[in-house]
Amino acid sequence: MPQSRLPVDIELGADELSRRLGEACLARGIRVTTAESCTGGGVASAITSIAGSSAYFETGYVTYANVAKQRLLGVLPDTLDVHGAVSEETVREMVAGACRGSGAELGVAISGVAGPGGGTLDKPVGTVWFAWGDERRQRVKCHHLPGDRRGVRDLAVAVALAGLLDSLLESGTVA
């Protein structure tokens, strides 16, 4: 699988990306949600570090276990059985479920292998799938992020935030 290029925006850092995301959400009247696995709530934490974020963020889901992905986000057991938790299909269902459950117009889902263990030949450590969108439409990317567990998670948070911002700024629409 070819590696996607990392967004240049991630160099701004999570704080600046979160600030810009907040401004864009407020300007467009958009609410956002998160559905996180390997980042463990890091994206929601970054968003809510901005004062006033309750105007555009009310719900984030940390669904580390597969059973939580099913129960809270409606990920189908067959999706997990056939494709695994770290897959395009799973993050699509995660973001759709997060938007459905929260009422948000835009969401991000993240599932990956942060390491140091858990990697396979098909999904080595650093493999992280992202989906941005809503219940009906999603944009999906896979990145192979470098670094140790903390580095992979930190980069994944920045990529997730940059993708949310891109979703709002590029087209002015959700996905």
CATH H level: which superfamily? CinA-like
Radius of gyration, in Å, reads 15 Å
CATH architecture assignment name: Alpha-Beta Complex
- Mean of the pLDDT scores? 93
CATH class: Alpha Beta
- In percent, how much strand structure appears in the residues? 15-25%
Our measurement of the CA-to-CA distance between the termini, rounded to an integer number of angstroms, reads 23 Å
Uncertain regions spanning at least 5 consecutive residues: none
How many discrete structural domains? 1
Question: Strands across the major sheet, in which order?
Answer: 2-1-3-4-5
Total helix count? 6
Written as H for each helix and E for each strand, in order along the chain, the element string is: HEHEHHHEEEH
User: Considering DSSP H and I runs of 4 or more, what fraction of the residues is helical?
Assistant: 40-55%
SSE topology:
Layout: H1 14-28, E1 32-36, H2 42-48, E2 57-62, H3 66-73, H4 77-83, H5 88-102, E3 106-112, E4 127-133, E5 138-144, H6 149-171
Parallel strand pairs: 1-2, 1-3
Antiparallel strand pairs: 3-4, 4-5
Essential attributes:
175 residues; single chain; 5 strands; five-stranded mixed sheet; alpha/beta
Structure description:
It contains six helices and five strands. The mean pLDDT is 93. Strands 2-1-3-4-5 form a five-stranded mixed beta sheet, sandwiched between helices. By secondary structure, the protein is an alpha/beta fold. The two termini are 23 Å apart. The protein has helices at residues 14-28, 42-48, 66-73, 77-83, 88-102, 149-171; strands at 32-36, 57-62, 106-112, 127-133, 138-144. It has one domain: Maf protein (Alpha-Beta Complex).
